[in-house]
Amino acid sequence: MPDSSHFRGGCLCDGWQRLSQCFGGLFLDIDYELPKGIGGASMVRDTVLVRPDFAAAIAVALLFSCSISSSDAAPITPGNLVIYRAGSGTNALGSTGNDVFLDEYTTAGSLVQSIAMPATGVGTKLITAGNATSEGAMSISPDGTWIGFSGYNSTIPAATSITATNSVAVPRVAGLFNTTTGSYSLTVTGTWFSAASPRGAVTTDGNKIWAIGGNSGVVYGTVDSSSPFVTSGTTATTAAIGTNLRVLGMYGNELYQSTASGSLPTVGQLAGNPLVNGLPTASTFLPNIPRQGGTPTTSRYGFTFLDTNAAVPGIDTMYTVDDSATSGGLWKYTLDTSGTWNASGSITALTGALRGLAGGVNGSDVQLYMTGSANTLWTYTDTAAATSTLSGTLSAFTSIAIASGSTAFRGLSLVPVPEPGVTGLLMAAGGAAAWMLRRRRWNRGSRVA
Asked: Domains in the chain, start-ordered, CATH in brackets?
């Protein structure tokens, strides 16, 4: 038995036996992060002596609430894209699991770096079912610091289809990537999404997590385990939110979702102030946004809300993508001064299955980026977006990158360029974090747990 074990962000999460061995009265070097939001996260190490009589309890607690973090990647350049890629290109995409990479691309389609999620070893892993096109959604925090995503804590290949596995045996995992530091954390989301796909996650601060999947509704918990992962609660609440959810997004201090459940809004605002209270209470309809199961048939995935019209306060333009046979493509809705959303055209084709969407305002235009069944990264400029109406077919899009064989592009996020006045504040915050890190290391010592 070794005399020490090295942890990242809390635990090794490889099952009861490993945890019991690691915690049984050993001195442990534990790496953890300074509080989020102070110039990015910085890793600190302390030595802790764990009493043998506490080992079992700690093992049980950590098995279902653990997270790991890593900082092997470079920060993302503001203005670039991050794409969730399924597959390494070595093995065919399939149901027993494939590697996950976060690929940074320029908006011209040039690959900058690929960040591999762990798929081997004793730590928490994150893989995906390569043949599950609904997996791999990405959502970025309002300040552009955090990108949320999800997967499975399993090695490759799994013994069976990982989507069908029990989440106790194969826990589902939320990943949070810090665009300013290149670090990420992986956190087991309790035992939710059993026998279903984990599809996406989002965070405001690198600690609070909202996660969704093929069942369980919206699940909320925290990286630091101060709030264990719980779901929306009552049957009535779950019915009002839906269980078969696809993408989460935060815009204008509100949380939104797209869904394939019942007759719920295809893209709806989650009620109950979840960004403050944790769990939503319902998915509310945005006037004139289609319901699921209506006519024509829709199958909405990614969406983005933007502010393009100075005459309408706050966000006033929504784009969403669709992968259905009849409505596949890009759809646009604009908010008028009375508070009603109005359809503003679409770019569709029978083969236009799109699922990932990101975009940003550039002057009076909107630049959009999309991924879908063709494993292509597309871009499209909506000129004079405040007043324009979309029309045409997918030939209006420009292909800027194509996923290689045995890989697939899933969701994506556009990392915003900071406002000019924010840069100085970020530099000052970074200096404060460095000072705190030095101070903490000077006072490093041993504790008895």
From this structure: 6-63+425-448 (no CATH), 67-417 (2.120.10.30)
